[in-house]
């Protein structure tokens, strides 16, 4: 089989990171005979540890690559300021590192799509800068699964959790995966590009899993070095980085109403989402069964989300019965779903924004449509 592989790594400031000593279980790394910093000796200053995540990753890739393999490493760098990633570029025949500079907020999905466009090989591994490899198992398994026409989602051993001093198998994430790029072209699929952390990997997995094209199992010698300890750190390089702001998706066909609501919520310290991305707090949507079904699919990933429905027809008994069935079957809690119907609810407040006032008092829509 063709053993030419493009490895795509999107990043922002993942080369030189100083973290607290305690959350990093040095004993865990020692048990697996791993070094923390790769090119540099371990540095411990005032209870802090310096982690060169990207350098660890690249060095480990170079060590496990076979002589007959060609690795093309594509680093999509979103203006890192901790290290000049351009210094890592080389033109080695079998271990070529290319750096694509992207002058924008970090978006993992966007970085993976950019890297894919610049890739020279058919075999692709979508990767992260904080991974480390010490065994051939992942790559031998990857070539096998690609040959069988599958998208391979390997399960790594996570070394970063302080409560798991032996490490643990990270079965919840789908961000690292490999495939032949023809699969993406055949199904006209690309990574979701979100302005906040998360969900692009769930989208990717769900799409190909529904097609019965996924393979997933544990592999040896494949490690997750470290992960930011809180959501603020994880999300800080994304455009929508402020966790004090609530996030709202407005999915309406009435453009006048949609524009007015977007402007109002933007002025009231909300992020406006353009798609079903991660960590949305509220969704305002048209009262159709199809729209509600889309929202309910998303609710599987985000059980705390609250839905506000603007019915197209307040006398549509089928739609109201459908909602009632969702509540009775406990697919959604009654206090997680509100219908904007003046005869049912006088006022509906969304974080100090009177949604009922915006809609009815301004006569944006007619409740008897």
Can you walk me through this structure?
- With 369 residues, this protein is α/β, with parallel strands linked by helices.
- The protein has 2 domains: 4-235, Spore Coat Polysaccharide Biosynthesis Protein SpsA, Chain A, CATH 3.90.550.10; 246-361, Response regulator (Rossmann fold, 3-Layer(aba) Sandwich).
- It has helices at 26-31, 53-64, 108-117, 137-147, 181-186, 200-210, 231-235, 255-266, 289-299, 317-328, 355-361, and strands at residues 4-11, 17-20, 44-45, 48-51, 70-77, 90-91, 95-101, 123-126, 131-133, 151-152, 155-158, 168-170, 177-180, 214-215, 218-224, 246-251, 270-273, 282-287, 306-311, 337-339, 349-350, 353-354.
- The termini are far apart.
Compact summary:
With 369 residues, the protein is an alpha/beta fold. The protein has 11 helices and 22 strands.
Strand-helix topology:
Elements (H helix, E strand, L loop, with lengths): L3 E8 L5 E4 L5 H6 L12 E2 L2 E4 L1 H12 L5 E8 L12 E2 L3 E7 L6 H10 L5 E4 L4 E3 L3 H11 L3 E2 L2 E4 L9 E3 L6 E4 H6 L13 H11 L3 E2 L2 E7 L6 H5 L10 E6 L3 H12 L3 E4 L8 E6 L1 H11 L6 E6 L5 H12 L8 E3 L9 E2 L2 E2 H7 L8
Largest sheet: 6 strands, mixed
Beta-strand residue fraction? 25-35%
Main β-sheet, spatial strand arrangement: 6-7-5-1-8-13
CATH 4th-level superfamily of the largest domain: Spore Coat Polysaccharide Biosynthesis Protein SpsA, Chain A
Short descriptors:
25% strand, 2 domains, 369 residues, elongated, Rossmann fold, 6-stranded mixed beta sheet, 28% helix, alpha/beta, 11 helices
């Amino acid at each position: 089989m063709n053993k030419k592989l493009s490895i795509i790594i999107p990043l922002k400031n993942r080369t030189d990171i100083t973290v607290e000593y305690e959350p990093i279980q040095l004993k865990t790394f020692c048990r697996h005979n791993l070094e923390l910093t790769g090119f540099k000796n371990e540095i411990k200053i005032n209870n802090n540890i310096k982690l060169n995540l990207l350098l660890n990753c690249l060095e480990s890739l170079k060590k496990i690559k076979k002589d007959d393999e060609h690795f093309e490493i594509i680093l999509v760098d979103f203006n890192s300021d901790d290290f000049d990633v351009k210094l890592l570029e080389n033109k080695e025949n079998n271990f070529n590192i290319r750096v694509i500079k992207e002058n924008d907020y970090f978006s993992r999905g966007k970085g993976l799509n950019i890297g894919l466009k610049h890739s020279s090989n058919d075999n692709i591994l979508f990767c992260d800068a904080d991974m480390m490899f010490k065994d051939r198992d992942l790559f031998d398994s990857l070539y096998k699964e690609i040959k069988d026409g599958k998208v391979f989602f390997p399960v790594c051993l996570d070394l970063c959790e302080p409560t798991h001093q032996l490490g643990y198998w990270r079965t919840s994430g789908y961000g690292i995966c490999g495939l032949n790029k023809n699969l993406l072209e055949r199904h006209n699929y690309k990574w979701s590009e979100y302005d906040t952390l998360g969900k692009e990997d769930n989208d990717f997995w769900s799409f190909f899993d529904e097609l019965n094209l996924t393979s997933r199992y544990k592999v040896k010698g494949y490690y997750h070095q470290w992960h930011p300890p809180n959501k603020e750190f994880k999300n800080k390089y994304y455009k929508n980085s402020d966790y004090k702001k609530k996030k709202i998706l407005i999915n309406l066909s009435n453009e006048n109403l949609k524009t007015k609501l977007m402007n109002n919520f933007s002025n009231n310290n909300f992020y406006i989402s353009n798609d079903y991305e991660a960590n949305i707090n509220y969704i305002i949507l048209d009262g159709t069964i199809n729209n509600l079904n889309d929202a309910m699919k998303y609710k599987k990933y985000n059980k705390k989300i609250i839905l506000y429905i603007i019915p197209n027809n307040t006398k549509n008994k089928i739609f109201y019965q459908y909602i009632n069935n969702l509540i009775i079957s406990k697919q959604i809690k009654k206090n997680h779903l509100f219908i904007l119907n003046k005869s049912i609810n006088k006022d509906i407040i969304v974080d100090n924004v009177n949604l009922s006032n915006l809609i009815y008092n301004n006569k944006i829509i007619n409740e008897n449509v």
